[in-house]
Q: What sequence folds into this?
């Protein structure tokens, strides 16, 4: 089981990035996928998730209207489209899956992101928003 993030980089304020999270060793759409970020000196924050199968989505208030999560089953990949980026969005972004979770769904019907349910994580991709 492996998750690999890509698509991070340096972007100017107001710009956009699309992050990708590609799974291997399992069928990604059978499980919830969450996106998290951790800025220097701050705790990890769950920003968005997509539930298994039905694909309902959740967004933290801090990213609503700015980020969009989507899934391409044929590519076994989940995306996070990030628009109108600000310097405070600078962080390492991680994706994770609730595969084999003993705590239930990591994204129950898109109502919330349940961090404790995510047991498999990618290595992270750096997003830096700066002029």
A:
């Amino acid at each position: 089981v492996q998750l690999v993030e890509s698509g991070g980089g340096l972007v100017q304020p107001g710009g956009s990035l699309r992050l990708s999270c590609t799974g291997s060793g399992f069928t990604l759409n059978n499980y919830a996928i969450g996106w998290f970020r951790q800025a220097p000196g701050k705790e990890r924050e769950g920003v968005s998730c997509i539930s298994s199968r039905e694909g309902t989505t959740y967004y933290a208030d801090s990213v609503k209207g700015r980020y969009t999560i989507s899934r391409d089953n044929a590519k076994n990949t989940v995306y996070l489209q990030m628009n109108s980026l600000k310097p405070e969005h600078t962080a390492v972004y991680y994706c994770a899956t609730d595969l084999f979770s003993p705590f239930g769904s990591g994204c129950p019907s898109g109502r919330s992101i349940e961090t404790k349910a995510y047991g498999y994580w990618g290595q992270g991709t750096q997003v830096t928003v700066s002029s």
